[in-house]
Design a protein that fits this description.
The complex is a heterodimer of chains A (248) and B (438). Chain A is α/β, with parallel strands linked by helices. Helix content of chain A is 40%, strand content 28%. Chain A has 10 helices and 12 strands. Chain A is globular, with a radius of gyration of 18 Å. Chain B is α/β, with parallel strands linked by helices and 438 residues long. Classes of the chains: A alpha/beta (248), B alpha/beta (438). The structure holds adenosine-5'-triphosphate and magnesium ion. The site of adenosine-5'-triphosphate (ATP) has 12 residues of chain A, from helix 1. Chain A: Keywords: ATP-binding, Nucleotide-binding.
Chain lengths: 248, 438
């Protein structure tokens, strides 16, 4: 599904990603952990196509196709979804209108007709129920005045609506209370299939109890310094990052 | 002969058409004198620092239109609010068009200034209201007063709720090589009466037009007035809009100004309070590009206690467009517990676009709440990336952001058909089809 080879990226001539290699196959869940400032969000932004970051070397292939030259929306149309660590507030655009626009623009790019209004409503109803989102919420301005947890839950609602091939969840668990965490994780699990893949960025084992990863990677100083199974997350929780930092 | 001389000379010809015995004529003569002394404003005046009429005034405008210029309804249909029944007062090249209009005297007066100014039965009203709130100092207002003759006359009697909105439209046909028109509107809204009015100026081709318009609005006790200005004219039209509003106790008046077109647009919007617990709203959306210029010059004069005013202007400036927002809030010593709010947010889409924003607060009362905020920004790239990440292409994302940016203003449009129309104009301006209504 996703193959990243020797990826280097910098912002304002400061190198942040220093040679990332990562392969995520369809049906897999990968967790990326690592200390603050390691480059986790940068990696997700670079995959999603944020233009502030300059890719200086390497490749990002989605189902064999190079993404680096594509605009963020083109990557989205190919099935890349990023749940933002800090979702953006967009006053004046309701969640529903935002989703309608996003879905229909995606369909347009894929050569499909607009989604009929009743189908759209049905989908909105189903997905909001899945994530236990109050319908009133959907007519509010996107993320404006949402609590931290509400923003995160809304990100996963959008993911559920867009049904991406590759979802990157950047600290979706932070800000969620225990119940919300369970609901969101449950939502992600329901959307999971053998045809899609998820990359979960987190600082805590907690989320990984619900969304069980096939692989855990530790990102440190712009490089993946360790990869293991789900037990690596437990080990990290116990020992912190120092032992890994010291190893390198 | 320059335009000033031409106007002064033509006043004599104008006198031949009107009753020089009437007291009104003294008002006109006084006004002409003021214009003669002051002339057209120049950039040397503080109030006109950023707006120059020089280039416009060089054109050879005819100051009296030819008598009758007919236009085909089909040709102008799109400029009306079509999905809702309305009263209409329509002028073509400054001359009333009975064919395009739909006036009334049934329970309310929606008719012509020229009849109000000349018919004896309106004399009392004209003596009471005409030129009473309009400035006697401003030279352009005086110029209008001197030639005041035609426009809309609207009188909503006490406790009357106008049963449908009123549209005032001024068309210019371009049959004259260059035309100057000076509409004069008088709107009186009685105690407890309600009315919604839209006003629009529209040229039908690219021949230069100069409009110097004056509107006086009197809102009596507890009256509710919603006034909408739609300024989406061709780029050869210069509009100077002078609107003066007098509000009595507990009246609620809002003016929304939508400026999307024109060459130079200057809006002098003045609110005067004459009672307690008055509510005034001034909102605007400006979206311009090319070399267009818009200057919003607002004044809210708080003279009595416990009144509120809300100003919210949004501007989007592309290409070489220039904007000015000068918002003056004047709070007299007696006007305790005033709550005056002013906000002006701007987005510059190009390096060459500029905005000059200047709040002017003159506060002489000590127990007041006055706030003002002004922002000038570029497009929010974080929001752009967020939307693009969800599959919305850059152009549409930009349009959606602009929509969102203007929503605080569009959301308070009380005529649904107008709201849709404005949404459509905004979408056209931004070159997108959004697929949903605001
Ligand atoms: N636009 C930018 N301009 C300057 N520096 C940046 C920019 N984006 C990221 N950085 C820097 O790159 C480094 C990696 O940041 P990043 O946000 O990717 O870390 P992270 O691993 O996601 O951290 P956290 O766990 O705190 O979310 C940090 O030192 C950060 O300051
Ligand atoms: Mg991060």
């Amino acid at each position: 599904m996703l193959v990243i080879k020797n990826l280097h990226a910098s912002v304002e001539d400061k190198e942040i990603l220093k040679g990332i290699n990562l392969e995520v196959k369809a049906g897999e869940v990968h967790a990326i952990m690592g200390p603050n400032g390691a480059g986790k969000s940068t990696l997700s932004s670079v995959i999603a196509g944020r233009e502030d970051y300059e890719v200086t070397e390497g490749e990002i292939l989605l189902e064999g196709e190079e993404l680096i030259e594509l605009a963020p929306e083109e990557r989205a149309h190919k099935g890349v979804f990023l749940s933002f660590q800090y979702p953006i507030e967009i006053p004046g655009v309701s969640v529903t209108n935002f989703m309608k626009t996003a879905i229909n623009e995606t369909r347009k790019a894929q050569g499909l007709e607009e989604m009929p209004a009743n189908e759209m409503l049905k989908m909105i109803r189903e997905k909001s129920e899945l994530l236990e989102i109050d319908r009133k919420f959907l007519s509010r301005s996107l993320n404006e005045g949402f609590s931290g947890g509400e923003k995160k839950r809304n990100e996963i609602f959008q993911m559920a609506m867009l049904e991406p091939k590759l979802a990157i969840l950047d600290e979706t668990d932070s800000g969620l209370d225990i119940d919300a965490l369970r609901i969101v994780a449950n939502g992600v699990n329901k959307l999971k299939s053998k045809d899609n893949a998820v990359i979960v960025i987190t600082h805590y084992q907690r989320l990984l109890d619900y969304i069980v990863p096939d692989f855990v990677h530790v990102l440190h100083d712009g490089k993946i310094v360790k990869t293991g199974g789900k037990e690596l997350a437990l080990e990290l929780e116990e020992k912190g990052y120092d032992w890994i930092k010291n190893e390198n | 002969m320059d335009l000033k001389e031409k106007l002064l000379a033509s006043f004599m010809a104008f006198e031949e058409r009107v009753d020089v015995q009437a007291t009104l004529h003294d008002v006109r003569t006084e006004a002409l004198k003021n214009f003669e002394n002051k002339g057209f404003p120049t950039k040397k005046e503080e109030a006109w620092k950023y707006t120059s009429l020089n280039a416009v005034l060089k054109k050879d405008f005819s100051v009296f239109p030819k008598e009758e210029s007919a236009v085909d309804f089909k040709e102008v249909k799109k400029y009306f609010l079509n999905d809702v029944d309305t009263y209409k007062v329509v002028f073509v090249d400054g001359v009333f068009s009975s064919f395009l209009s739909s006036t009334t005297h049934d329970g309310l007066d929606v008719c012509l200034m020229s009849s109000a100014l000349t018919k004896p039965k309106y004399k009392m009203i004209i003596d009471t209201y005409f030129n009473q709130v309009a400035s006697k100092e401003e030279s352009l207002t005086s110029l209008n007063t001197a030639f005041a003759y035609e426009g809309a006359y609207i009188n909503i009697p006490k406790s009357k709720v106008a049963d449908k909105p009123i549209e005032i439209i001024y068309f210019s046909t371009g049959n004259e090589a260059a035309l100057m028109v000076q509409p004069r509107n008088l709107i009186i809204v009685g105690e407890n009466a309600h009315v919604q009015i839209t006003e629009r100026h529209q040229s039908l081709n690219e021949n230069p037009v100069l409009i110097n318009s004056v509107t006086e609005i009197f809102a009596h006790k507890r009256a509710i007035v919603d006034f909408y200005k739609i300024q989406n004219d061709v780029q050869t039209t210069t509009l100077i809009d002078n609107t003066y509003i007098s509000q009595k106790q507990e009246s609620i008046v809002s003016v929304h100004t939508f400026t999307f077109g024109g060459n130079i647009t200057r809006n002098n919007l003045n609110f005067y309070h004459e009672g307690e617990r008055i509510d005034s709203t001034l909102k605007g959306i400006t979206i311009i590009g090319d070399k267009q210029h818009v200057d919003h010059y607002t004044l809210v004069h708080h003279a009595q206690p416990n009144c509120e005013s809300h100003q919210n202007y949004k501007g989007i400036f592309g290409d070489n467009a220039t904007g000015v927002f000068n918002g003056k809030i004047y709070v007299e010593k007696e006007a305790q517990k005033t709550d005056a709010f002013q906000q002006n947010n701007n987005i510059l889409l190009s390096d060459k676009a500029t905005i000059n924003a200047k709040p002017q607060l003159e506060i002489f009362a000590d127990d007041v709440k006055c706030s003002h905020g002004c922002t000038i920004g570029q497009l929010d790239e974080n929001a752009m990336f967020y939307m693009q990440q969800r599959g919305i292409p850059r152009k549409e994302a930009k349009a959606l952001l602009m929509y969102a940016f203007t929503s605080e203003v569009t959301s308070s449009i009380k005529i649904p058909e107008l709201k849709n129309k404005i949404a459509r104009i905004i979408a056209t301006k931004l070159g997108v089809n959004m697929g949903f209504d605001l």
